[in-house]
Here is the input.
Amino acid sequence: MHQKQVQLRKAKQLALWCLVVAGSIFVGTILIPKFFPELASAWWLGLIKMASEAALVGGLADWFAVTALFKPIPARYPIPHTNIVANNKRAIADNLSLFVKDKFFHATAIEKLIKESDPAKGAGRWLSNVNNSTRLSRFLCDALSGILRVIDDKPVKAFIAKTAHKGLKQIDLRQLMVTSLNSVTKERQHQVVLDKVLGKLASLMSQPSTQEYIAETLVAWLKTEYSRVEKILPSSWLSEKGALIAVKAVSSILDDIYHDAEHPIRHAFDEQVHEFLYELQHSPLMEEKVNRYKAQLVNDPALNGYIHKSWQRFHAWLLASLEAREGLVETKVSRWLQELGISLTENSDLSQAFNTHIGEAAKYMAPELADFLTRHIRDTINSWDEREMAEQVELNIGRDLQKVRINGTLVGGLIGAILFAVERLIGS
Here is the structure.
C-alpha cells in the first residue's frame, strides 16, 4: 500500500478512536447513575458528562465537515453541499489555473525571479565543471544526430524536398538580384570588385607561366594563319617578344585603370552596371530570361542530383562525427561550453548581459507560457474522474484534515467543561 494511504488510514483510525472514547464516556455517564444512584448528584459526573457530550458533538460535526469535502452524505441520496471537491471540479480547475497564472507567471514575478537567481552565474558555475560540459556536449550531439536521422527518413526527406522545391519556385529571383545589386552599387562596391579583378589580372600577367602561355599561343597562331611566313621568320623569338609586349601593354592599361578613379573604362563599367540594373528592373524580356534561368536551375536533373549526392556525403560525415564518442565534435563543443561557463563566471559584463537577455525573453514568453499552462492545468483537471480527483485530494491533505477532527473532539470537550464551570458559577 502507498505510504500516503497508510498515513491517511492511521489518521482516520486515531480520529475515530477519539470519537469512540468520547461517546463511550458519554454513555458511561448516563449508565453510572442507574447502577450507583448515590453518584447521580456528584458534580464531577456532570462535568464529565457535559465535556464528553460536547466532545462527541464537536467530533461528529468535524467528521461531517471533513467527510463532506470528499464524499456524498449519505451515499445514495446525498444532502446538498456534500461531496464538495467532486461537485466543484470545474470551478477548482478554473480557479487553480488562474491562480498559477496570476501569481507565478506575470512579468514582475518573472523579472524578480531572474534578478534574484542570477542564472548567468549559476549556468557559468555548472558549465565550468568538465563533467557537466562533457555531458551537455554529448546530449547536444545526440539531439542533433537524432534530428539528422529524422530528416533522413524517406517521408520526411520527400516532404522537405517538396517544400524546398515549392519555396524555390516562389522566390522572386529578379527582385532578389535587383536588391543585391542596389546594395552593391549604392556604396560603389562594384568598383571595389573591379579593383580586385584588376589586381588579380595584373598579378596573373606578371607570372612567367602566363607569359610562356601567351608565347606558345602566338607560335601556334603564326603556324596556323601564316605558315609560309613562319618558315622564314624566327617565330619563337617573335612570340617571346610579342608576349612581353602584350604583357607590358595589358599591365600598363590595368595599372592606369587601377590608379585612375575617373578612367573611361571605369565610367563605362558604371554605365554597364546601371544599364543592366535598369533592364533587370524594367525590362519584361529580362524578367522572362531570369525566370527561365530560375526554372532551368530548379528543374535541372544534373544540379538536383549533385545537390542530393553532396547532401548525402555531408549528412553521413556529420552524423558519424556527432555519434563518435569523445570524437572531435563532442570534444570541441565540450571545450566551447566550458569556456563559456568560465566567461560567465568571471566576466560580470557578460553575465549581466546574459541575465538581461534571459529576463527580456522570459517576460516576452511569460504571457504565452502562462496561457498554455493555464489551459493545460484546466483541461487536465477537467479530464479527471470526479471520484478519483476527490480521492487524490483527500490522499494528499486528508491526513491534516483528520487532525481537525481530533482537535474538534478535544476542543469540544474543553468547551463543554468550561460551559459546565460557567453554569455552576452562575447557578451558585
Observations:
- The chain is about 90% helix and 0% strand.
- The two ends are 57 Å apart (CA to CA).
- The mean pLDDT is 79.
